[in-house]
Amino acid sequence: MAGLAIEAKGLVKSFDGKEAVKGIDIAVPEGSIYGILGPNGAGKTTTLRMLLGIIEPDRGTRTLLGHERPLEAARIVGYLPEERGLYPAMTTKEAIAFMGALRGLPLDVGRKRAEILLRENGLGDYVEKPIKSLSKGMAQTIQLFGTIVHKPKLVVLDEPFSGLDAINQGRLESLIRDEAAAGTTVIFSTHVIHHAERLCERIAIIAGGRIRFEGLVAEARDRLRPQVRLKTRNADGPWRTSLPANARETNGIWQFELPAGGIESLLKGLMDGGAGIEELSIERPGLHDAFVAIAGEAAAREMDKPSPTELGVAA
Amino acid sequence: MMGLFEAAWVIARRDFIATVYSRTFIIFLLMPAFLFGMTYAAGQAGERADREAQQAQVALVADSQVVTALQQARASLVANTSDLSFPRLTAVAPAEHPDVQARALLADESAAYSAVFTGTLDRPILTGPEKIDENVGRRMRLILDQARTATALSNAHISVPSPEFERVLTAEAAGNLHSVRHVMARIVQIVIFTITLLLATMMVTNLIEEKSNKVIEVLAASAPLDSVFLGKLIATLGVSLLGIALWAGILGGLYLFTQVLSNWISVPVAPAIGWPIFIILAFLYFTANFLLLGAIFLSVGAQASSVKEIQTISMPITIAQVMVMLLAGTVVSATGGILPWVAYVFPLSSPLSMLALAVQSESLWPHLLGLAWQFLWVAIFVRVASVMFRHTVMKSGGKISLFPGLRSKKA
Fold it and tell me: CA A198, CA A286: separation in Å to the nearest integer?
């Protein structure tokens, strides 16, 4: 494994006496795309804020790009908060340059880079436009440019896909991949599993303020046995004794985990029992299935709900 | 990490430019003129209305010669003072029983007499309640004395013309200088008090906006919150100094080039300590005053999440600030006792008090002590307030520590 861009151990945070984060351990390898998955209120934002030093943990330690005090690494970190914050009267170029200046980038350099970023992304006409004249999605894009204008080594994005349409979500995915390809570590939180599935090498699944899983996406999937889907010509017969106990039938299609004995013994049982196999497939479980298995049905249902940002509610 | 001051500078520069190019700054520039104009107009109108309302009316129930003598006496007195200084005299035709008539006149609410004069110049009778003796009674005695003297001189055919003063002009008189400096000290205190209050409110309102549009989170992630705090203080201080400089430039320009002000102020009065040092001290005391109060406003304001909430929270601070202003005012009044000393020493009233001292006294050394004392408190206030700000603005929780660096190193 490469060196760690972020390492956190036992992070705990309470608000008004209630523990929001209950001892979180995270290890983000340098140059990776890392996703933090969890439903709303799981503790994702609090975790990111603690990692960045915006708020101090009550207990636990964290190291950000080798710095025990995260703000010491501020110049090489980019952060897009869940609640987007820009000065409405600032022009897009100035807003991007200002965010860079906060990270130590000289203003004139920031302005030049801002202009390049805007033009390269088809927003050349908006260079001198004030933020208040932009759509929500466009303002979000401007803030994202402000997050990367100083060419950070680590980019932290809190629910970056919230409020974006499908086209802009696709653009953002490309941008994340480009950043990672350039050697930047990207960590983002999301409650939409397929973004993490498409982008991340490693993930952390958080629910109820605790880490339920931390590791490779493939490892999460591997927690579930492959799923078998079976359709037979004969509805009944001795072949049914060869099905595992967890097999369930819906509309004539049987679904169950691949038995520990493997596919050969299953096939033999089905054929000898006269099932008349019409269709049979073995599918690798998706991240969503893994999430359900790891975090539970309730957490998965919460994941499908829109975030407060998407609802337009300030947290 | 960006240094504390480097990050503070980035934030201060943004806030300064944003404020100076906003409508708020124009309002800030116009506000003093508006406030002082309103205060002056209200004061003038109010004072006149009060005095007019308080000017007593006395009924003269006497024969025409007495009435004429009294009215002429009043007129001659008023000529050298003001009409409002003496009760108005209204002639009423005498009835059969003057004492009964006097009581009836005093009972008549539509006429609203404070007293009734009956009798003659030699046997005057003033009917009315005891409480008028201090005011109406004394003044009626003056009018009566004047009337009697004039009548006696007239009867003796003696004319005593009033001599005109031969004027010997001097540059200044200590008594006059004292009273003008007294007013000057009050004005500088009010100016600094008003500007500080105005700016502190403006700064906190901006902070609330940043909290509501979530900019504060971006700032907090990029720079230490101490820098955010300091940046905002510095920016608002810069805005205020620019505003004051503009005002000073405009007034100075008017004074020097159009002579408009020099016509108003016929005798230029300098503060006791002299203009150059006074200007430097005013700058330093204003800075200290703003940093002390601004730090309090910003740390308290960080707890609020809406402008309405900040109004509620800042109400006690504003009331406390008015009390501090009154405390500082005891220095100008020179009432003696312990209060002026408390005003000099108490950190929040010290800048206003010491500035008043600069107007009224030429000693320089107390200011060196005062400034050292105040900036020590500025350091303490800014430190404590920035810790509170850090603690509350992002609701970061945890224990408040004045020295977080030490705490994390120990950990």
Answer: 11
Q: How many contiguous H segments (helices) and E segments (strands) does chain B have?
A: 15, 4
Contacts of B291 (CB under 8 A, 6+ apart): B233, B237, B378, B381, B382
DSSP annotation of A91: B
Q: Which residues of chain B does A14 touch, with a Cβ-Cβ cutoff of 8 Å? A: 397
d(CA A65, CA A76): 9
Nearest CA in chain B to A17: B397
Question: Number of helices (H) and strands (E), helices first, in chain A?
Answer: 10, 13
Dihedral sign of CA atoms A272, A276, A278, A284 in order: negative
Tokens of residue B345, six digits? 């020493």
> Tell me, what's the ipTM?
0.73
3-class state of residue A69 by DSSP: coil
User: Which pLDDT value is given to residue B310?
Assistant: 75
Contact B1 A83 (CB under 8 A): no
Q: Measured at the alpha carbon of residue A161, what is the angle toward residues A155 and A165, in degrees to the nearest 5?
A: 140
Q: Give the residue-averaged pLDDT of A124-137.
A: 91
| A 130-149 → B contacts, CB under 8 A | 143, 146
- If chain B, 411 residues long, is cut into consecutive pieces of 10 residues, what is the mean pLDDT of each piece? 79 90 82 74 67 79 93 91 88 90 90 91 92 87 93 87 80 73 86 84 82 80 83 90 86 71 58 88 92 86 76 80 88 78 93 91 92 92 82 57 47 35
Q: Running DSSP on this structure, what letter comes out for residue B409?
A: H
Tell me the H-state helices in B55-173.
64-80, 98-107, 138-155
- Quick check: A309 and A262 in contact, CB under 8 A? no
Closest CA to A287 of A206, A205, A221: A221
pLDDT of residue B395: 59
* Residues recorded for chain B: 411
Residue A315 confidence class, pLDDT cut points 50, 70, 90? very low
* CB contact at 8 A, B271 and B285: no
| Closest C-alpha among A289, A299, A293 to residue A210 | A299
- φ, ψ dihedrals at A12, nearest 5°: -130, 135
Q: Is the pTM of this model over 0.80?
A: no
Strands of the A4-15 sheet, one edge to the other: A18-29, A4-15, A59-64
pLDDT in tens, B269-325: 678 888 889 989 999 999 999 999 888 888 888 877 777 777 787 788 888 888 988
Residues B143, A22: Cα–Cα separation, whole Å: 90
Q: Rounded to an integer, what is the distance from CA A17 to the centroid of its chain?
A: 28
Give the count of Cβ contacts less than 8 A between chain A and B: 88
CA distance B239 to chain A (A): 18
CA distance A102 to chain B (A): 6
Find, among A95, A114, A168, the residue nearest to A137 by Cα.
A168
DSSP for B27-41, please give it.
HHHHHHHHHHHHHHH
In angstroms, the separation between the Cα of residue A8 and the nearest Cα of chain B is 15
Residues A233 and A228: their CA atoms lie apart, in Å, by 17
Cα separations in angstroms, B205 against B14, B35, B97, B216, B225 = 16, 20, 71, 13, 18
Q: Which helix (H) or strand (E) holds B410?
A: helix B404-410
User: How confident is the model at residue B397, as a pLDDT?
Assistant: 41
Q: Is residue A99 within 8 Å of A147, Cβ to Cβ?
A: yes
DSSP symbols for A100-124 = HHHTT--HHHHHHHHHHHHHHTT-G
Chain A residues in contact with B220 by the CB 8 A cut-off are 54
